[in-house]
Amino acid sequence: MQEKKEKIGGVTLDLTYYPGQDFYSDGEIENELLSIVQNHTPDQYDSIIREKKEWPILYHLSPARGNIADWIPFKGTEKVLEIGAGPGAVTGTLSSRCGSVTCVELSERRSRINAYRHQDRDNITIMVGNFEDIEPHLDTDYDYIFLIGVLEYAGSYIHGVQDPYYEELVRIMAHLKRPAAGETEAGRLVIAIENRLGLKYFAGCAEDHSGRYFDGIESYLNEQPPAKTFSRTALEKLLAKAGATKTSFYYPYPDYKFMEALYSDRYLPSASDLSDNIRNFDMDRLLLFNEKKAYRGITEDGLYPVFANSFAVVAGPPLDVIYCKYSGERADRFRIRTKITLDSLAGRSILEVVKSPLSKEAEEHVSSMVRLGEKLTERYTVEEKEDADGILHFSQPVLHVAQCRKAEDEKSVIFPFVEGKSLEMLLDESLAANDAQGFIALLDGYRDRVGINEEAGISDYDMTFSNIIVDRDAWTAIDYEWAREQAVPVKDLLFRALLVYYLEDDRRREKTEALIGNDALLERYGISPEEAARLAEDEMQFQNYVTGGIDALGELRAQMGARVIKPAELQSESEKKKIREAKEKETNSLAAIQVYFDTGSGFNEKESYFEGNTYMEEGVCEFTVDVPRNVKRLRIDPALCPCIVFLKDASFLKAGRDQFLRKLRTNGTAVKNGSFLFTTSDPNMVWDMGRLRRKAGLGFNPKEDGSADTIRFVLQMTGIPSTMAKGI
């Protein structure tokens, strides 16, 4: 077979095995993606995502997609194979962290998107074509092979075998590096895939691939699925059958697509860690129960590995990472990654916490932690005093500070992992035991320890209860990312710690109110209602400072239009009222026909009015418009929402419906026989009045003389959901 290759920047596009046709596509949106990556730089993608508010653009261009591979401790020399690379959402992360990346992708158009967005790289080769055609020609010494959202589709691209998922794994694992004589390091296969039994599916999310509710839970028995996912047990068995002797399971949260945190069997989450659950960007979902509340029992019983929404599985030698968190929804100068790693030393495992910048701008933010830690250590180190009997006493309670150091790369910092329980956990235990005295004693301990040397010019604004570890009498501050070189009153820090504590779990506020009384608690620590209001406003300003005013992904989800639908039987009275109000608003949108006149200055609100008639039975509305003779163009907006409009009739002297259809200009799509599909919330239909007057038999364009022309319209209209409109 003759080689067919081309260069796009530094990227090699290998079309040798391309069959000449793309058999998989997201449609026209891929042309828009190609245009974006050809004409914009990666640092502009985020603003484009937030401007467009379209799921495919978010899904393919968000830098958060690369998190699923970024956490892996690459050395920088790895030879990597990425199967099903698509438009390159993960390719960029791999190429920036590894020696070379070979991509396999079925679609030429998607491969070009990948190539153009990474054209500044010189270590990427994209092989375009069917996996079965390319696989025999792949190397057999890859350090890593990635299947990110790919294994579940094996049934559609592995043919002629009884178990395509097993066959896929066997074929792929044959291309992993085998350790040479005397070596122990073998290649690794990394799989990211949804969990068939993910909690979100029980709670009302449609299955990601089929779009059907409970499809995976019901074992895909209703119809032939486009893809098939697995439970943890089933995936373990499949990998073992394929020859994977060592497997490590990780749990990306909320899922592997937009991973914010990564847990493992060595480091499982608590319920308070799992609060970002409404993540339906592309489809409406039901809300059958509160996932966060369900996670309480699940995590307490050790069942999170069964119900996690996604898996990231490493087949091969274990990695030293047991936890990772991304603080990516921030201003560039504050974007960091936090990892907990194992460092084997003298036959035992040493835990370390590594914080790394995710952008060039964030390097100073990370490196400053060393200096700030030293200053905090100085503040909280108190003088030891020896009494007459030679016994040492501290003049004040001590707060230890987990001092960090710079890593070898000079960009990251390393904290020691501190054993013990967080102050947050101890407070929770006091509430659970209805121990008001114990709860207050812990808060008093916070006040007394954190408030030491309050006049010192250094404070940790983020001294929350989860950032203090208690081991018997030793209290240790473990994270001081937001330390400030200024004095902050301890009562301000205590208020913020309480505020964060309550926001993470509403039950805490309720229990504290019942057990102690929140007003009484604030009064105990000298915080007046006016100060509480000021401090709450300070917190809002702080969050805006951290994020740079950028909406989080969860907020972007709401803007994209995917709905959260709660069945009527589960709705409270206040929820039912909101739904009634929303339906009334929607009905008004469907009935709002707005008429615009252009007298030479374009269409504007001043020269418009709303038609008094509304759509009657079956969505039909008949009305007339008196168009002054000085009007050059007429515009009809049939609704204030996406809709389908049928122009049943229109007449103006000798001009009938056919003439109106021929002269119509619209921002919708003609469907058939006078019907138009509008996927925008601002549909419009425009006519040139000069042309209409000629067709009506007037023969000239009359000057303004105070008279008007009467046009009759009959429209039939039905609204469509905004999510359906976006899909179309």
Describe, in short, the structure shown.
With 728 residues, the protein is of the alpha+beta class. The strands form 7 sheets. A 15-stranded mixed sheet has the order 1-2-5-4-3-6-7-11-8-9-12-13-14-19-18, sandwiched between helices. The protein has a 5-stranded antiparallel sheet with strand order 27-26-29-34-31.
Q: Which tags fit this structure?
A:
single chain, 728 residues, alpha+beta, Rossmann fold, Transferase(Phosphotransferase), domain 1, 3 domains, 15-stranded mixed β-sheet, 5-stranded antiparallel β-sheet, 25 helices, globular
What does this structure look like?
Helix content is 32%, strand content 23%. The chain is α+β, with helices and mostly antiparallel strands and 728 residues long. It has three domains: 319 residues, Vaccinia Virus protein VP39 (Rossmann fold, 3-Layer(aba) Sandwich); 220 residues, Transferase(Phosphotransferase), domain 1 (Orthogonal Bundle); 142 residues, no CATH class. A 15-stranded mixed sheet has the order 1-2-5-4-3-6-7-11-8-9-12-13-14-19-18, sandwiched between helices. Helix 15 runs antiparallel to helix 16 and helix 17 packs across helix 20. The longest helix is centred in the last third of the chain and has 19 residues. The model has no long low-confidence stretch (mean pLDDT 89).
